[in-house]
Amino acid sequence: MRSSLSRRGFLAAGSGIAAATALPALSGCSSIAAADSDPDTLLVHTQLGTTAPGSATYTAVVDLFQKENPGLGVKNLVNGDDLAQVYETSRLARKEPDVVMINLYDKTLAWTDVGATVDVKGYLDDWGLRNRVVPAALEAWTDGKGRLRAFPYFATNWPVAFNTTLLDRAGVGAVPTTGDELIGAARKLRGKGIAPVTVGGNDWTGQKLLAQIIQTFLTQEEAQQVYATGDFGGRGAREGIEYFVSLRDAGVFADKAQGLTSDTMTTQYNTQAAAMQSAMSSALAKVPPEVAARTEVGGWPLAPGAAHEKPTIMRSFTLIGFWISPNGTKKLPAVEKFLRFMYRPDVVSRFITESGRDMALVTDTVSKDFPLVAAAQRLGDSVGQVLLPDLYVPPTASQPLITATSTAFTRGTSAASVRSVLESAYRGA
């Protein structure tokens, strides 16, 4: 896989321009800017502190950590979707935070390979934390050279949510499990003025659903090859695209899905304007109780001849991990205390019970106040599983694939055109 970051460019000491652009990103608070050189202050770069589920719990457990470790402080640098870019800029100036909390996707796929973060496998073993991690999570976070990119933490299930009350109102007798049933349900729902499947066709949620449907006729091994190379010309990939187009043009997706976002999607489902959504755990956790009580979770309906025996969902163990930076290796005693604390069973349980998060760690705790998250965890072998392609898509193709997704969700776009825009996203990757 070719990185969008050159080894020379990333590891260079950085020009005056690079340093000048990095410093403001870290200097929103003078105490944070100074923390990089303080051995008793751990600087953590995180997305938890925005509106991301788990933010309140994270703030609370960090406060607890500091109370239990007097003299050792934690300063949080909070960013949203721009975290990866901000971190890379700070790394060029050698002012990067000590620990980074982010998912394995797009730019971050290259970090360990170019030295922006370090292999943590030895630390995981030295600190006795390997048995705390779900084996599948360790596999997902390990690169092709055997390096463990980060300490796994958040995971996610990604089923389909069905509002059974809306289905009943439209005369749909049961949750659809086949493509024909889904098309029939969509017609009946539209007859009642209800959007069938809402989806963020203009962002990552649509990209993932499109990938899921394309995999209808692909094994996971075949899907890995397709998404690593961008070759959608094989029979299985072409049939999957054709299946997607048949569903789209039959009115399965909400009107103007090509312009909708993840926020629009969750709003439509949570206000009962739409009957179905493909929803990861964090979205399931946000479904209001009165809607959750009317929701059943399951898999995406299949077409005849599918490579899977049961409707499919996606699962991922790479939603958030703790990455250690080169600066972090200078503060290993502090990093070790922090990660041991975050891996503690009582701390892990708080993210599950208070925030409805799925975890990549071994735990018996159940999300009692987040029934849909718990229901997705219980699906087990009752559904099939397709590949979440994030680990295989070259970083330079990630954003172009979202643009291609919007084109794919535009009604009337032919299957051949959908294939063309998907493959075009890989040019230069």
UniProtKB/TrEMBL annotation:
Signal peptide (from-to): 1-35
Transmembrane spans: none
Listed InterPro entries: Bact_solute-bd_prot1 (IPR050490), SBP (IPR006059), TAT_signal (IPR006311)
Keyword terms: Signal
Coiled coil feature spans: none
Gene3D superfamilies on file: Periplasmic binding protein-like II (3.40.190.10)
UniProt-recorded name of the protein: Carbohydrate ABC transporter substrate-binding protein
Lineage top rank: taxon: Bacteria
Taxonomic lineage from the root: Bacteria, Bacillati, Actinomycetota, Actinomycetes, Kitasatosporales
Species the sequence originates in: Streptomyces corynorhini
